[in-house]
Each structure stands twice: as C-alpha cells, then as structure tokens.
Amino acid sequence: MTMQRLDFLLEESKKGRPMTLALACPYGDDALAAVARAQLEGIVKAVLIGDEGKIRRLAEQEGHDLSGISVVDEPDDDRAVEKSVKMVSSKEADLLMKGLVKTSSLLKAVLDKEWGLRTGSLLSHLFLFEVPILDGRVVGVSDGGMNTYPDLSAKVKIIENAAACYHKIGVPQPKIAALAAVETVNPDMPATLDAAALAKMNERGQIKGCLVDGPLALDNAISEESARIKGLSSPVAGKADMLLVPDIEAGNFVGKVLLYMTGGRGAGVVLGAKKPIVLTSRFDTMETKLLSIALGALAARS
Ligand code: COD
C-alpha cells in the first residue's frame, strides 16, 4: 500500500490540541495566509514574530483575520528569528515556521549552540510530494533542503529522522529507496556504494523502523513495471514511500520537478531538532505551506 493524497495531513492534524506555532517574519509570501487558515482549521495556535505594524497592515490588505493570533513586535529580522527560535527552545511553542527570511539565516539560528534547537543529532529536511501523474501518490524526498553532501553516517540519520516522522503520520514501516543513477553497485559511483551499505545495514537491524533498498534508480524506485523489467524484486522497488537522495542538488531537482513540472503539491519539514521546523520557500503555494504546517504539527506531537 502506498500513501495517496496529502489531504490526510489536514484531517489528522485537526484532531487533538492545536500545536503552538511560532512564525518568524510573516511578511507577504502566503505564509501569513497559510497560518491564518491553519489557525481557523484548529491545526495550530499561531504566534507571529516580526514588525507588528507591518504584519497588521499586511493582514488588513490581504484580508486575514488575526483574532486569536498573538503578535510579538520585533522589527529587526535577525532578532525576530532569534525570538522565534527561543520560543520553541523554551517550550512556549511546539513548532517553528520560516516566513520571509533567508533559509540559511533561520537554519543558522536553529543550530545556535546556546539557544538553538539542537538535540545532538543531525537535522534533516523531509519533503512529501503528491504526484498527480501517479494518481496522487505521495512520495517523500530527503534531504533536498538542509544537508548538502551527506556521508554514510549522515544518510543513516536522514533515514532515521524520516522514519520517525512517517511513524507519526501513520506509516509504521516506510519503504525507503536509496537512490543512485543506476540500480547496480558501481565502485566508480559513490552513491551506489552508500546505497548498498544502507540496504545491508537495514537488513541487519542497524537501521530500524523502515525498509531500505538500494541502489535503486528513480524509475525502478517508483514504478513497479520498471522494477519488473529490471528484474528487481524487493519490498521497496517500485513501491518506495521515500527517496533518499545522494545530495542536496539531486533532492532539490527531484522536488522542484515534482512541484513545478508535474503540478504537484507538497509538504516540507525539518526534522531531528527539538521540535519540527516548517521550512517552505517563497515560491511555494499557500496550499503547500498549509500542508507543511499540518505535517509539522503532526511531527510535533509526542
Ligand atoms: N544537523 C545538525 N547540526 C548541524 C547540521 C545539521 N544538519 N549542519 C551543520 N550543523 C552544525 C555543525 O555540526 C556545526 O557545529 C555548526 O552547525 C556549523 O556547521 P557548518 O559550518 O557546517 O554549517 P553552517 O552554519 O555554515 O551551515 C549550516 C546550514 C544548514 C545553514 C548549511 O548546511 C546550509 O546552508 N544548507 C543548505 C540550506 C539551503 O540553502 N537550503 C535551501 C535549499 S531549497
């Protein structure tokens, strides 16, 4: 069974208590619209941290109802990011969201040794995509957002972070394809060596809570027909829930192709920190932002 459509994230995240979300610098890129909607739907209780005058003007211009939403006035962007991160590290908020601020600035604040959200483990980004051309099938990609060129140990952590998130959204044994350009081990292609090692580590119980196979090429990770033609029989080939990509470039390209060239929807979150971080890009639609908040809210549950 593969996951279909991302709407279940909205349904599930409405159940139980709304999570308190700290949104840093909520200016003009649909983040405010998505948070206002998430508050209305009972998914989150939002706190907006930024220039209060600007936030209220924007809400009025765009017609967002801020009643019930708290605003912390901090006109300086760096200090607004710091305050937002501190709200989460002090447990005043259950999850963090990036508004109109550079991804690297937010991540650097999250990694601050004194007041950041480090846990001693690796932080990694997971993006779930709903792919129309596959009848709405949900395919995850990690890590196309945070870790640039992960080594084998980092890839293990990326898988573990993703598996823990899949468990929280109701997939007890996610099928993870360790991607490479080919499905055979080739000593000249390091991604195939890491993928084979990860598959073996999973088989031997060194990586738990998921099924990992690799190396797999994108086609035989996703398409059962392609896996059959290549003679691959494994519980993962053709049925992958998540693609473990070799580096940020591969992850970013796959993700952007799915969003911008297939008209898909997505939901993205940074995992492995004290609490999840909703990290969408300026170009993501309001819908993708709302789905990301729902994913973050589910991942924030203990
Ligand atoms: N998890 C935990 N700790 C980390 C991580 C991580 N993923 N990355 C770095 N650290 C720690 C290091 O151990 C070190 O203690 C400190 O943070 C600084 O490490 P650097 O110098 O390697 O990292 P930075 O601060 O220069 O950059 C970290 C970023 C996450 C900002 C950087 O890796 C980055 O820019 N990633 C890409 C983000 C991006 O642009 N995404 C957009 C794609 S759409």
Description of the structure:
By secondary structure, this protein is α/β, with parallel strands linked by helices. The protein folds into two domains: 7-118 and 273-299, Rossmann fold (3-Layer(aba) Sandwich); 124-261, Isopropylmalate Dehydrogenase. The protein has eleven helices and eleven strands. The strands form two sheets. A six-stranded mixed sheet has the order 8-7-9-6-5-10, with helices on both faces. It has a five-stranded parallel sheet with strand order 3-2-1-4-11, sandwiched between helices. Helix 4 (77-89) crosses helix 5. The radius of gyration is 19 Å and the shape is globular. Bound molecules: dephospho coenzyme A. Dephospho coenzyme A (COD) binds at residues 103-104, 107-108, 111, 122-123, 145-148, 252, 281.
Question: What can be said about this structure in brief?
Answer:
The chain has two domains: 7-118 and 273-299, Rossmann fold; 124-261, Isopropylmalate Dehydrogenase (3-Layer(aba) Sandwich), CATH 3.40.718.10.
